[in-house]
From TrEMBL:
InterPro entries, A to Z: Mt_RNA_Methyltransferase, Ribosomal_Rsm22-like, SAM-dependent_MTases_sf
Region (Disordered): 416-448
Bias kind Acidic residues: ranges: 420-442
Protein name in the entry: Methyltransferase-like protein 17, mitochondrial
Function: Mitochondrial ribosome (mitoribosome) assembly factor. Binds at the interface of the head and body domains of the mitochondrial small ribosomal subunit (mt-SSU), occluding the mRNA channel and preventing compaction of the head domain towards the body. Probable inactive methyltransferase: retains the characteristic folding and ability to bind S-adenosyl-L-methionine, but it probably lost its methyltransferase activity.
Subcellular location: Mitochondrion
The organism of origin for this protein: Stylosanthes scabra
Main subcellular location of this protein, as a coarse class: mitochondrion
Amino acid sequence: MATQAISEAAQKIVTPETLRNVAKQSERCLVVPLRLRRAIKKYLREQEDPHMKRKVLRLSQSFNTVKNINLQLTTTTSKEIVEDPLKSLEQSKRWKIKSSYGDIGLSYRDDETVAYVASRMPAVYSACYRVLKEVHRRLPGFSPAKVLDFGAGTGSAFWALQEVWPKSMQKVNLIEPSQSMQRAGRSLIQGLKNLPLIHSYDSIQALSKSIGKSERGHDLVIASYVLGEIPSLQDRITIVRQLWDLTQDVLVLVEPGTPHGSNIIAQMRSHILWMENRKHRKSSLKNEEACKDLTTQKAGAFVVAPCPHDGACPLVKSGKYCHFVQRMQRTSSQRAYKRSKGEPLRGFEDEKFSFVAFRRGQRPREPWPLDDINLETLKEQHAKRNPEDLEIDYEDWLKMQQADDDAPHEVANAITYDSDAAETENDDDGDDNEQDEEETDSADLGGGWGRIVFMPVRRGRQVTLNVCRSTNRNASEGSYDRIVVTKSKNPTLHHQAKRSIWGDLWPF
């Protein structure tokens, strides 16, 4: 009976339509919301800065300098902190933060803030939106009411939160040490309706002093593009532990999609999973019977995305690094102030990012999507065809061809933009007419969904996929495998593979 239930559940997932909906986690070319584009344009117009292009160029050079510094940084902590982050719990409690956000050498004053809003804010928004949208898809019942945004900057993550969970958020705490960034963030949200209650703080310590113990728990905590600006590995670990203590459900970390950013995400992932597994084992040993229900429900942590497992990252020793790409249509401010190297500026840009999303508790045990499913080969499908279905009336075929010829064709390589004129209109409800995206089926959080890393390679009737996957049913270990899907052996999965892109899920 149980086997039959699993089979029926798996059968529902593997129908072509639901498979496509469940596996699709990536976003195609993203268009920044109209109200955010309007807010940016209004903010920049109020600055009346004639040297904006120069400031944007200086900010870009500063980012490159920080990137070079990161590559040359010596680790300020012992090797044991990376290999065994909580080797001594007593010692870890005595850690004090010596460096903080911004100590890497990049401080955001008014000039840098204006340049950031003009050039970088839409790209950071697109990465945060892509990550939070996946969390929403993987956890359809999750609706955060209380949110903490660490390193909020000008509010890129806040705008993404507003798009993904516009009706559930009630209170948002923002932590941003730069007063210039705080002012810009407040200016950008002026005029928005139905905003949650917002409080801004300079540091985690200031937040802790202002709230009571009962208010420390946040449904969602996000730290985007901030950990890389903390030079000390020990301080990063300490801050992430503090953020995890402020999290009662989901923690999301986002960094640039560089080797350095990916390495930070891998270290923080390893640390939190190790720490929670250790706590879970200790509490189980103390009182196995009394604490059984408590440890099962509240103790521990698992990765919601992108990893399909909670084991060691298989990419760490492969010479590759885990990152993803979100393409976005450039806003009018980006096209106006960004410079290109000798070529016309493209109408889009690709934002590379690395991320991890954790949830408290134990990973749910779900059947794998291809359990008890016998997918037909191409030869078997052909054998079942009805010869009458293959007959084509010649006159009907001619009419179909004529209809195709008369249909208007799209112009190749045509660059189209959303109406920039709409950004200057005074209608505050411009987004109300936009249709909400249809909710897709959710992929379960068992070990049966792998992650496509890097772009699939299509050659003739076969597709090669690089997939990070779980190697066992409890998702405690994983591997990085190259999978070849051919049309002759599996036309159903081949049809899906042709439409899959970097960042999508893959069923096992």
